[in-house]
């Protein structure tokens, strides 16, 4: 069973997935191994994660490892319709199309729960939250779940803290080979990619405001600087603000940044980061967008109320004309600009994120029954193994400690 936009796009989707496979050697190596060992045999995996070419490589890998899969997208604007069609054509149960409504979004999640999953996979925790809020009877049959992103992990930790979590969840986001690469380099490149596809503007010489200097904000700020933009950072955390300052970025309040910025991007995971009083002082022609998981960072309800009209001027680019005559350009309706206006993170970086996803699900299939409800991290050795495989498949060799050096590392008596 599937519902996608247009099955005729399957051939184009298949090509795109093959391209991703050629850039994801770690996940492909795990797939080859799993074809023989079948670590997910008998498992039913319900997944709710952006339907992209990289996700398709993960889905194919889960199926090759013996799992039955049912999938929905985790954002109304991130589904790549050709990829969804290709997955449907190879008999994966998938419910996803680009531009769906919020009601459709939850309908799709409900459809994926109909086969009573034994494992759940989330990006943003909407699927697992639906299980907990509406289908607690299903939770008994679930061995465990995984969560891909920072925002989802926050939600799950809050649920665990309140004693509301019914089964164990692995925070894939918290593996070093995920957050230190996907969040930084993945978000950095793909967000700029989204801005460029939606605007085609020159970044060199522009004042580029990044709200939030976490891993994602750090990546975006560094890539924007690389293209010659004048980067300004806004923060609420003293330590993060200090890091941005010492990295050479100008740090100021959003109230001040709003007056001078040409392009704004939010990467905070917090709501109402750019609101009415900021829009009111922005320059004519300012571009605003968001790369955080949810679309609550830009307050578009307030922007709409201040506007006398709006029109789409390019794909993923809406011009709001304010009552003061200024025009503000909103990209991708304030949703993740990297997935809605571009193709999400590049395959090479998703290779590691999804290798962690795969390892997480295999661990839960094996040990989930004996794990208490709670949020878990993958073991450190797993991270090291994924990094080792990534280096190996990239043709990069590194040194190893000699036995004398190993001894030195643990010898506390050796001093000056
Ligand atoms: N993300 N997936 C892709 N190309 O499939 N791009 C980004 C892709 C994930 C990323 O891991 C991040 O944590 C999450 O999307 C935010 O929703």
Class by SSE composition: alpha/beta
Q: For the residues shown, what is the average pLDDT? A: 97
Low-pLDDT runs: none
**Largest sheet properties:** 8 strands, mixed
How would you describe the oligomerization state of the chains in this entry?
single chain
Strand tally, please? 15
Question: Taking strands numbered 1, 2, ... along the chain, how are they ordered across the largest sheet?
Answer: 9-8-7-10-11-14-13-12
Calculate Rg over CA atoms: 22 Å
Morphology call? globular
How much helix is in the residues? 40-55%
Give the percentage of residues in beta strands: 15-25%
Bound molecules: 1-(beta-D-ribofuranosyl)-1H-1,2,4-triazole-3-carboxamide
Distance between the termini: 70 Å
Total helices: the number is: 19
Task: Write the SSE topology.
Elements: H1 10-21, H2 25-37, E1 44-48, H3 53-64, E2 68-72, H4 81-89, E3 93-95, H5 102-113, E4 119-122, H6 126-134, H7 136-139, E5 144-147, H8 150-161, E6 168-171, H9 176-179, H10 182-199, E7 207-211, H11 215-226, E8 230-234, H12 238-246, E9 250-251, H13 254-260, E10 263-266, H14 276-281, E11 286-290, H15 300-306, E12 307-314, E13 317-322, E14 327-331, H16 337-340, H17 347-367, E15 374-376, H18 380-393, H19 403-409
Parallel strand pairs: 1-2, 1-4, 2-3, 4-5, 5-6, 6-15, 7-8, 7-10, 8-9, 10-11, 11-14
Antiparallel strand pairs: 12-13, 13-14
The structure holds 1-(beta-D-ribofuranosyl)-1H-1,2,4-triazole-3-carboxamide.
């Amino acid at each position: 069973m599937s519902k996608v936009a247009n099955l005729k796009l399957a051939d184009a989707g298949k090509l795109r997935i093959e391209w991703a496979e050629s850039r994801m050697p770690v996940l492909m190596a795990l797939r080859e191994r799993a074809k023989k060992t079948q670590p997910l045999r008998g498992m039913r995996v319900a997944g709710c994660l952006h339907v992209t070419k990289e996700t398709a490589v993960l889905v194919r890998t889960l199926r090759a490892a013996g799992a039955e899969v049912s999938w929905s997208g985790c954002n109304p604007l991130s589904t790549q319709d050709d990829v969804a069609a290709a997955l449907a054509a190879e008999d994966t149960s998938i419910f996803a199309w680009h531009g769906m409504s919020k009601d459709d979004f939850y309908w799709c999640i409900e459809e994926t729960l109909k086969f009573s999953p034994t494992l759940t996979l989330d990006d943003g925790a909407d699927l697992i939250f639906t299980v907990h809020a509406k289908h607690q009877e299903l939770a008994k049959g679930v061995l465990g779940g995984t969560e891909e992103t920072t925002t989802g992990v926050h939600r799950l930790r809050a649920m665990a803290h309140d004693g509301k979590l019914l089964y164990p969840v692995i925070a894939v986001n918290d593996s070093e080979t995920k957050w230190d690469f996907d969040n930084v380099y993945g978000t950095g490149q793909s967000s700029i990619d989204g801005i460029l596809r939606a605007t085609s503007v020159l970044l060199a010489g522009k004042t580029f405001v990044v709200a939030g200097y976490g891993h994602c904000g750090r990546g975006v700020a560094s890539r924007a600087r690389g293209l010659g933009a004048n980067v300004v950072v806004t923060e609420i955390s003293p330590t993060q603000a200090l890091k941005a300052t010492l990295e050479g970025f100008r740090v100021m309040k959003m109230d001040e940044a709003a007056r001078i910025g040409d392009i704004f991007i939010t990467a905070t995971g917090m709501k109402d980061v750019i609101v009415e009083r900021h829009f009111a002082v922005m320059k004519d022609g300012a571009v605003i967008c968001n790369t955080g998981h949810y679309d609550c960072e830009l307050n578009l309800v307030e922007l709409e109320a201040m506007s006398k009209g709006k029109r789409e001027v390019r794909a993923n680019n809406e011009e709001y004309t304010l009552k003061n005559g200024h025009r503000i350009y909103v990209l991708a309706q304030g949703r993740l600009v990297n997935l809605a206006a571009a193709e999400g993170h590049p395959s090479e970086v998703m290779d590691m994120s999804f290798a962690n996803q795969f390892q997480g699900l295999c661990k839960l299939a094996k040990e989930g029954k004996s794990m208490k409800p709670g949020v878990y991290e993958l073991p450190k050795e797993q991270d090291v193994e994924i990094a080792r495989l990534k280096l190996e498949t990239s043709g990069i060799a590194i040194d190893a400690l000699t036995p004398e050096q190993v001894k030195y590392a643990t010898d506390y008596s050796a001093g000056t």
